[in-house]
Amino acid sequence: MTQIPANVPEELLLGQFIPLHYHFNMLRDQSRMIPFKEAIEHAVPLNGTVLELVGGTGVLSWFAAQKARQVWCVERNPALVRASRSFLTDNLNGERVTVVQADAMTYLPPEPVDVVICEMLHVGLVREKQLDVIHSFKDRYRQKFGGQLPCFIPETSMLAVMPIHQDFCFSGYTAAVPLFEPPGPNLQESCLADPHYCSTIDYGTDFAVEFHVDVQLEIHRGGQFNAIGLLTNNFLAFVLSEGRAVQWLMNELVLPIPDPMEVAIGDCVSIQFGYRAGCSLEELQETVKAEIVVRATASSSNEPLKHAA
Question: How many domains does the chain have?
Fold first, then answer.
């Protein structure tokens, strides 16, 4: 396990301090790399200027450098700064990228930019400081260069929640712990109700950094309701000429609920939680509450359940 020094600031622990090998593994994640490459190719103008906030290995900056005349890649971690500079020298047009060792919360480019790339994305926008970094950047950028903001990649993130049944048995050992599940058939089979879209973040406008969810959902598939699933879909770029978006659907974040309950088709369940973007998983999980508010047998008379599980 990577040892984190005791004196590392909190902002590094939550999002900006990720072990080097994790960044290397992200280079193999085609579900991430392919849509980012497409979105950057679409959004970056020929001979334009680009800023990447928290650049990691520099790969997204390199995608941008294939069209841009100048890219500033900001990274605070010294090991990643060294690695990205080394990698860029071995790749075509890598000289168009200037790797800057600086804090993304305070850095501004020397001139206005056409596009800002920021991929500090975590499911549910927890742990990483995506919203704080972009919020800080926009305020400082307006003060230095005026009111017009650059284009952002991603353009929008949408968060959804749904009640699910999750198997928490591992080789016979039961442990109800947070999990990450990839999109696909397993996700569809685990959901007990349709997802509820609870927040939309448009990075080019003012956005909230705190989320408060209080929703009631009708069960369409019976079973044990023992967890909530958080979905995060990132719209990296909108291709208006083709009427489509370049999307990156992240893994589902599975959070166990305190008191699992049996639910039937037609039951109505309540899900509540609240958190600040960038918080830890533990902080988010502590706020999760769930209960049955209407039983199917009482729903015809719209009678609320007097004793929720």
Answer: 2
